[in-house]
Structures are given as C-alpha cells and as structure tokens.
Design goal:
Layout: H1 3-34, H2 40-54, H3 57-64, H4 71-89, H5 99-123, H6 129-135, H7 139-165, H8 169-172, H9 179-218
C-alpha cells in the first residue's frame, strides 16, 4: 500500500472514530441528564445517520482494492444499517423514542469507537495488541444485541406506522409489492442474513487473532539444543 493510500485510510478512520465518539458521548450525556433512554434519536440520531451514510466508503475501499475486505459482507452490513437508520428511524418519528433505538445506537457506537481506532492505528503500524483483541472480540456481544434487540424490534414496531403512512408509496406503487411487505420479508430473512455476517466476523476473528497467536508462538524463546 502506498503512502498516500495509508494517509487517506488513516484520516478516514480517524474521522469516523471521532464522529462515533461524539455520538456515544451525546447518547450517554442525554441519558445522564434526562434519566431516560427515550431521547437517543434527538441526541445523536442525525449524526449517526450521517456517519453511517459516509461509511459507504468502506464498500468502495474493498471494491477498488485498497483494503483486503470482501465487498459483499461490507455491502450487506452497510445496506442493512443504512436502511434501518435512514429509511425507517429518520422517517418515522413515532419509533424514534423506542428503547430499541437506544439499544441499537449504543451497540453501534460502542462497536465503532473500538473498530475505527483499531483500523486507523493498524494503518500506520502502531496498533496495540489489546485493541486488536477488543476489535475482534467485542462484536461477540455487541452485534447480537444491536441487531436482534435493537434493529429487529425497531422495525417490528415500525410496521403499523409504515402501513398507516403508506411509506414510500410513490416508489413501491410501481412494484408488485408494498414497502410494508418488503419490511415484513426483510424481518423474516433478518436472522439468516445476520447469522451469515456473524459467522463471517467469527472467521475474521480466527484469522486475525489466530495469526497473532501463531506469530507470538514462533517468536518466543527457543529451547537450547545441547
């Protein structure tokens, strides 16, 4: 990787790290001030939506080959999150105060304030081992919490409002199904899509942490041969 590409990747990941740190601080500050989790969207929703939209760059990074990421998992992750926050939460005020929205935003923010600093530091070759371990371990808990207890519950509670408002009717009237039917089908498929990404992340974990352990083993003290 060239110096310019490394500089770009470091800057991109540092900006995302800073943005998600601000989002997490906003969430926690709001909870502390109001003693409630109902204001998660008002506190950080617009910022989180912007950061998530901007993360489409990670799909492009893999597509043009400046990072070794596979394009399809990155696209699935970006598409799922972006649809959730931009197409549903931002457009339906009635769901913005749901506890599930706070759960989603908190899980996303915690995950990203680990992931992006690890990427940034790894780009310049100065990432501590504990941060790499955390990057490839925290998802084990955060990912199912955010997806199942956050995204799925929010979309489920959004269904009556989607139907009542005939959301995106002008677009879906030209199709043989409604947006309501699309979200219903998405909810039915969500566990399988989620499991695919979850297993992929476990493969990444084994690859990254397994290699680190192997290198440590190989570089460890050698037995003296008499």
């Amino acid at each position: 990787m060239g110096r310019l590409a490394r500089l770009y990747l470091f800057t991109y990941n540092a900006v995302q790290a800073g943005g998600w740190t601000v989002a997490l601080i906003k969430l926690l500050t709001n909870v502390s001030a109001t003693k409630s989790i109902d204001g998660a969207y008002d506190a950080a929703g617009q910022l989180i939506c912007l950061l998530q939209l901007f993360s489409v760059m990670e799909v492009l990074h893999g597509a043009i080959g400046i990072v070794p990421n596979k394009v399809l998992p990155a696209l699935m992750q970006w598409g799922g999150r972006t649809h959730f926050v931009a197409a549903i939460v931002c457009q339906i005020p009635e769901v913005q105060k749901l506890p599930a929205v706070f759960v989603t935003f908190a899980a996303w923010s915690l995950s990203e304030v680990i992931r992006y600093p690890q990427y940034a530091l790894n780009t310049v070759g100065h990432c501590p081992g504990w941060l790499t371990w955390l990057r490839y371990s925290a998802f084990v808990v955060l990912y199912p919490i955010g997806a199942m207890f956050g995204e799925v519950l929010t979309m489920y509670h959004a269904l009556p409002y989607i139907k009542e408002k005939h959301l995106y009717g002008n677009l879906f009237d030209k199709l043989p199904f409604s947006y309501y039917s699309f979200v219903m089908a998405l909810l039915a498929c969500y566990p399988f899509l989620w499991a695919t990404l979850y297993m992929y992340m476990f493969k990444q974990r084994k690859s990254k942490l397994g290699r680190r352990g192997e290198r440590k083993h190989r570089s460890g003290p050698k037995r003296r041969v008499e």
